[in-house]
Amino acid sequence: MGGARLEGGLARLWEDHLRALFPDGFRGVDFDGVALVLLDADGGGLVQRELKGGLDGSGIARLWGCITDLDKIVPLINEEYCASCFANLRTMAQVAAAPYAPPRPDHRG
Q1: In this predicted model, which residue has the larger pLDDT, 107 or 83?
Q2: Which of the listed residues 6, 11, 22, 70 has the most CB atoms within 10 Å of its CB?
Q3: What is the pTM of this model?
């Protein structure tokens, strides 16, 4: 049931992402060497692949790379709508990547 809830949440996030307009004035812009339009396209494409049947090893690695880039650039974006769009992309990517996260060690020791 947890997987079904996760998938439903991911589908909703994906639909929200599709309805959002790319931030005006940010095409061709990059932050710290990360092109926003490419990050949006790559991250979105990977989420779509996850929804359509899952990611292979290289897709999982690319998705974690997108999350790393989003962690780096979101704090650098000083325009509210653009920052919100990429923060939402980060959330969506994290939900898509959650099934592939390594288990956390038990520290009850």
Answers
A1: 83
A2: 70
A3: 0.86
Across 58-83, average pLDDT: 96
Q: What's the pLDDT score for residue 101?
A: 84
DSSP class of 1:
-
Q: Longest C-alpha distance within the chain, in Å?
A: 52
Rounded to whole angstroms, how far apart are CA atoms 20 and 87? 13
Residue whose pair of structure tokens reads 């790559």 in the numeric block: 42
Alpha-carbon gap, residue 75 to 80, rounded angstroms: 11
- The position carrying tokens 């919100």 is 84
The beta-carbon contacts of 82-89 under 8 Å, at least 24 apart in sequence, are 82/23, 82/26, 82/36, 85/20, 85/22, 85/23, 85/40, 86/36, 86/39, 86/40, 88/13, 88/16, 88/17, 88/20, 89/17, 89/39, 89/40, 89/43, 89/44
Sequence-separated (6 or more) residues with CB below 8 Å from residue 20: 85, 88
Does position 42 have pLDDT exceeding 50, yes or no? yes
Q: Looking at the chain, which runs of residues are DSSP E strands? A: 30-31, 34-35
